[in-house]
Structures are given as structure tokens and as C-alpha cells.
Amino acid sequence: MTQLFWAALAPLLVSAAPPRAPRIVSLNPCIDAVLMQIADPAQIAGISHYSQDARSSSIPLAQARRFRATSGTAEEVVALAPDVVITGPHVEPATIAALKRMHIALVQYPVPDSVAESAAQVRAMATLAGHADRGAALAGRIEAAARPSSATPLPALIWQSGGLVPGAGTLSDDLLRRAGFRNMSAVYGLKKWDVLPLEYLIANPPRVLLSISAAEVGEDRLTSHPAVRRLGRRITLAPYPARLMNCGGPTIIAAMARLKQVRGEFGS
User: Residue 198 maps to which CATH number?
Assistant: First the structure.
């Protein structure tokens, strides 16, 4: 389903809901993070179990543990008696069928590929929750944090363990550009999400390598390779936490702060 479809559907779902603010269950940790800022706590009937795991949460664990968590099974969700379930693009068919039988609305949002898409989703979710003003405020903060830098673009690459790289058309690509970087993914001929062989990295290194593994475990087998270390000053390794690239929404604010911090070390 397209984002525009759900944005148009949200007001209809709100008008069809009871007069009280709708009870919401989220099955997605990225949506959990948005709900924390645009919905009343009493509205949040359940969140994704991923948000109660430090390895995958986009919100503080202490905050996440104030809410019921669900793994997304039909039985769990129906037991929470929500008015609407909000989730990402992938939902188990059994859960969809159960929600349909129980006349519980299901709204799915695609993974945002840009700041603009993420801000639009925030506004749509807030309208669905009955708090359009909060959505507008959060979207405004996201857009302000992601205001494009005027610095000369610096060649960079985001590198995950195993060499997985986000390319053109991803949210990470949009954030890199806005922070004053040029995503080197296209130079290597990579797809939207692709694996970059170490040999290509060494032959044509970016000026900055934003390493997910360096942020999480301190060292990665590939980035700690002697050939990479021999590049010396030709490449700067900067830790970049995985939680900053897993979600849009309010995570964009923290991601942009980190990217601008790294870019600021090189001047204009």
C-alpha cells in the first residue's frame, strides 16, 4: 500500500472510531517511537516486543517497559482489544485475517525512503491517533534537524557488518546528503541495498566510513582488516550506531546530529 493511500485513509479511520481517542497497538519498533511522542500513554494498548530489547529498540528501555509488548500474533493483538493496529509493510496473514474478523482496523506504513516520506507518515499517524497538532510539531522538528548542509559534499559510506551498504533511494542516503556527505554507493555501482566487497573499498575508499559494527562491538572483521588499516589518513572510520539507521521518525533527529557531528570534524 502506498503512503498516500494510508495518509488519505487515516482521517476516515478516526471519524469511524469511537468518540474517545482510539486504542492503538503497534507491531513495529519504529512506529513505537513515533507513538511515544504523538499519542497519550493510555491510548497505547501494546507495542512491539522489539522495543523491549536493547539491541533493537528505538526508545529508552525504561519507557518501553511501561507498556504491554506483543510479538504480533493474532491472539495477542486481539486480546488487547485495540481500535486500530499500526505496523510496517509485513504482517502475518493469520493476523490480518483475525483483525478483519474482529473488525479491527489495520494500517500499514512502508519503510520511508526519505525525510519527506517519514515526516508525512508522522503526520498521518498523529491524525490517526487524534493528535494532529503533535504530529505537525514532531514533523517540524524532524525537518528542522534534517535541513540540508551547505558544506561541500564529502565522499562517505555507511558500512554494516559483512559489507552491507545502503544506496541511492534509501533514507540513509537522504540523510547523508543532507548532512554534507556524498554517498559513495553509486560510485561502486551498488543497488539500493547491496554488499560491497572489501577489494572495491580498498581500491577506491571513501573519505569517511561510517561503521555500524565499530559502534556496536568496537571492531569489525572487515574494517579491522590490515589492508583497510594501511589506508591510513585516506579514510576516517567513524562509529555509527545501528539504531540510527533502523528507523525514520524521531530517530532522524538523532541520526542527523551524529552525521553533522562527524561532518563538522572536516570543516566546510
Answer: 3.40.50.1980
Q: At what angle do helices 251-264 and 171-179 cross, to 10 degrees?
A: 40
List C-alpha distances in Å: 161 to 83, 152, 268. 40, 28, 30
Burial call 13-33: b when 16+ CB within 10 Å, e when fewer: bbeebeeebbbbbbbbbbbbb
Domain that holds residue 45: 3-144
Angle at CA of residue 115, ends 17 and 161, nearest 5°? 110
DSSP structure class, residue 261: H
First to last CA, the chain: 41
The predicted model gives 45-65 an average pLDDT of 92
Phi-psi region of 144 (alpha: psi -120 to 50; beta: other; left: phi over 0): alpha
Q: pLDDT tens digit string along 228-246? A: 777 777 889 899 998 898 8
Question: Same structural domain for residues 140 and 24?
Answer: yes
Give the per-residue pLDDT at 222.
Answer: 65
Cell of 216: 556496536
Predicted confidence (pLDDT) at residue 31 exceeds the cutoff of 70: yes
Same domain, 163 and 243: yes
